[in-house]
Amino acid sequence: MSDEETGGAWGSKWLVDTFPDEFRGDCVLNGEPSTPSTIRFGEKGTLRLVFEIATPGAHAAYTHLSRNAIRIASDLVRDLVAFEDMDVPQPGDVRRAIERSRAAVDAALGTGAGRIIDRVTVSPGVIQGGLKINIMPGRCHLEVDMRLPVGLTHATVMREIEKMLVKYPEAKLSPVWTHSAESSLCDPNHPMVGIIQATVASLIGHTPVPVVSLGATDCKHWRHRGVPAYVYGCTPNNMAKPDEWVDIEEYLHIVRTHVLAAATYLAS
Known about the structure:
By secondary structure, the chain is α+β, with helices and mostly antiparallel strands. It folds into two domains: 4-43 and 185-267, Aminopeptidase, CATH 3.40.630; 46-179, Alpha-Beta Plaits, CATH 3.30.70. The chain has eight helices and eleven strands. It starts with 11 loop residues before the first helix and ends with a helix.
């Protein structure tokens, strides 16, 4: 769907907000990457943060005259990474589904993926500062992507970040709300899950596991409105790297699954 990468403000979110009767529906089946071995019934939240750090700056030899904006940014990143140790309580059925799915998530997305399903992750994506090696930078621009597990809200994290920022009076924070979204969740035992599992078993002989997604999709816009939404899609080979690709036969399998599962659901 158009605008998915930038939060959906002018794509799916706009459609369900503007035409709720036409686009809300009873259930959503989405083809975003998931791997054929998993069905995504929820996804972590996103929190995008931009920090502008400003100090007087100085010659590199005169470090007594100013704080270094890049060093401040480095300390700020260290404190943000500490959020990865937060304990996040989750509903019992979600907790059980996550525990059952860790091995499948590791197999689908690489060793270690299952460990971070229910953990905060912090990724500094952009850092810009400095003019010359012997000039102490007076400005630094920092952009950070945080992923929040189900059960952890923006409000909770922002309160802790505001407390942390007391140590950094030179830093101004601007959350990018258009590109941020709360975590989302729907029933891992919904009839559509069983239909997808049965369909896949009949096509390729294995049963996909319900999981919570590490990444975000347009499904959140329906889940936030009480509509169950599920992702069953291709393996995201080289995602966010050069030469992203999907296997053609796997893609055709996804198409067959969506058609048959949708037909079964609508006929039930």
